[in-house]
Amino acid sequence: MTDIVEERAAVLAQQPMRPASPRPGFARGTATSLRDVLAHRELLGLLVRRELKARYKDSALGFVWSLVRPLVLLLIYYVALGQFLGAARQIDSFAIFIYSGLTAWTLWSEIVSVGTSSIVANAGLIKKVYLPREVFPLSVVGSALFGFCMQLIILVGATLVARQFPVGTRWGWFFLSLAVLLVWGLALALVLSATNVYLRDIQYLVEVCMQVFFWLSPIVYSWKLVHGVIQGTVWETIYLLNPMTLVTLGFQRAFWVAGDGTAYPPDLESNLWLALGVGVLALWLCQRVFARLQANFAQEL
User: Fold this and answer.
1) By CB distance 3.0 to 4.6 Å, which of 37, 104, 116, 123 could disulfide with 301?
2) 65, 134, 77: which is closest to 102 by C-alpha?
3) Distances in Å between the alpha carbon of 205 and those of 31, 113, 168, 195?
4) How many domains does the chain have?
5) Which pLDDT value is given to residue 284?
6) Is residue 60 scored above 60 in pLDDT?
């Protein structure tokens, strides 16, 4: 037994030391972090698969459950708002309209909410071995995209059944909006997961904020209603600063074919491109904050 311990100690002594603190230099530190993540891309794939398997372990329906929640929400909103409150009479193809927003929101919500607790949830692994901590929020993005793809299949199928399949430049709206969503979602997941290690109230605050921002995005109501109330005021500008407002409108432009005659913000495309550019910068800054905070993750956990 002693020989085995000594042999392992000798092997470990030959391994190079890996600093846990952030690399010096803003640009150089970012490049080093990217190389570390790329070097552990196989581990990232394993974490994504582990996340998916653990989520539906011992479940008879398995991945089908990833569709149940958004479909139940669709049914609730369609009946409560569409039929009882008459929204379906004011909005053509109300089911496709609302499911377009729900598809985007479900992806966003999972990335931010689950990403916030991703470091704490993997405390055992972080305290035992060295690996770039960014892989944990990234694995959440990977598993969330799997569920998103399944929802997207249903959404596209609904447009086929309704004979309103999106064609041409509509798919440009989809990919641009999806890019904005992923960039901002990952940026928030990084910075929130790091701060949640030191202040566990963050994850509960995120849950409350997600409920608020759901209703601050035009998912279950149209932009036309909002525009009629806050048109020309500073509140309209503030409302459009929410990235998920722009993403939701972008998804509607892509899949809600029946809403072609509906009013949209006049500069929606340019605002989406601006949100993407600012989001990339925010992602960079959030990664550097994450790198600064990760040195003491093992001690705090």
Assistant:
1) 123
2) 77
3) 32, 10, 41, 12
4) 1
5) 92
6) no
Show Cβ contacts of residue 191 under 8 Å, excluding neighbours closer than 6 positions: 286, 289, 290
User: For residue 58, is pLDDT > 70?
Assistant: no
d(CA 183, CA 90): 33
Each residue of 14-41: pLDDT tens digit?
666 655 555 555 667 677 777 877 887 8
Residue 259 DSSP symbol: G
With contact defined as beta carbons under 8 Å apart, do 244 and 218 qualify? Answer: no
Cα atoms found within 13 Å of the Cα of residue 185, Cβ hemisphere only: 29
Transcribe 135-156 into DSSP letters.
HHHHHHHHHHHHHHHHHHHHHH
Q: What does R_g of the chain's alpha carbons equal in angstroms?
A: 22
Q: Looking at the domain assignment, is residue 5 inside a domain? A: no
Helix (H, G, I), strand (E, B) or coil at 267: coil
Q: Confirm if 252 and 260 have CB atoms less than 8 A apart.
A: no
The residue among 186, 183, 146, 169 whose CA lies nearest residue 250 is 169
Please check whether residue 250 is in contact with residue 173, taking contact to mean a CB–CB distance below 8 angstroms.
yes
